[in-house]
Specification:
The protein is an alpha+beta fold. The protein is built from 5 helices and 9 strands. It is globular. The chain starts with 9 loop residues before the first strand and ends with a helix.
């Protein structure tokens, strides 16, 4: 359902509806159907592309992080896969901003030319091998890292009083550093 949000899905078990989504042009709507309102209100979309690949998707903030990876989805060319490489890239991008010991929510879509991947690594085709692991890691890491930074920008209000206090502290630190340099210079001259 996540990779094909324009199609509605219904899952029944013994004539009881277990799960359903509605078709939508917005993947965010499908995320809401699957994970709920709390998740859909705490995600940020991102996108990055170059000549060989593109990555887009949704990352969650710290509020929806969990103690397991069951809220992490990776799709390569619209196929659901398990990728330690992509998962590590996303989780490492989060480590720069979040210091909690939880796993972030994410839905990642990587589109890449087929000649750059090998899908015949796992019998169920859920794992793939990339021709250029380092390039994929860096590409996904950079996209997610930038998105997290952009989503946090503007979340911290700085008043004029705070700016004045920071300027005073910087001035005081500069004076202390000058004193330290002079003090060290004097010691060196005496010896």
């Amino acid at each position: 359902a996540l990779a094909n949000n324009e199609i509605s899905f219904k899952l029944s078990n013994n004539d009881k509806k277990v799960f359903s989504t509605f078709s939508s042009t917005e993947p965010r709507d499908t995320i809401r159907y699957i994970y709920g309102k709390e998740v859909s209100e705490n995600i940020t979309s991102f996108e990055k592309y170059n000549d060989i690949m593109s990555v887009h998707g949704y990352i969650g903030n710290a509020q929806i992080s969990r103690g397991s990876r069951n809220r992490q989805s990776v799709f390569v060319n619209k196929r659901y896969i398990k990728s330690g490489l992509i998962t590590a890239a996303v989780e490492n991008a989060f480590k720069s901003f979040l210091t909690i010991n939880k796993f972030p929510f994410f839905v990642i879509f990587l589109d890449i030319f087929p000649e750059y991947i090998d899908i015949n690594v796992h019998p169920q085709k859920t794992e793939i091998k990339f021709q250029e692991d380092k390039a994929i890691f860096k590409f996904v890491f950079d996209a997610v890292h930038t998105a997290i930074g952009d989503s946090l920008r503007g979340n911290f209000d700085v008043t004029d009083d705070d700016n004045k206090n920071n300027e005073s502290n910087e001035k005081r630190n500069e004076n202390n550093n000058v004193y330290q340099v002079e003090k060290n210079t004097i010691k060196k001259d005496v010896r």
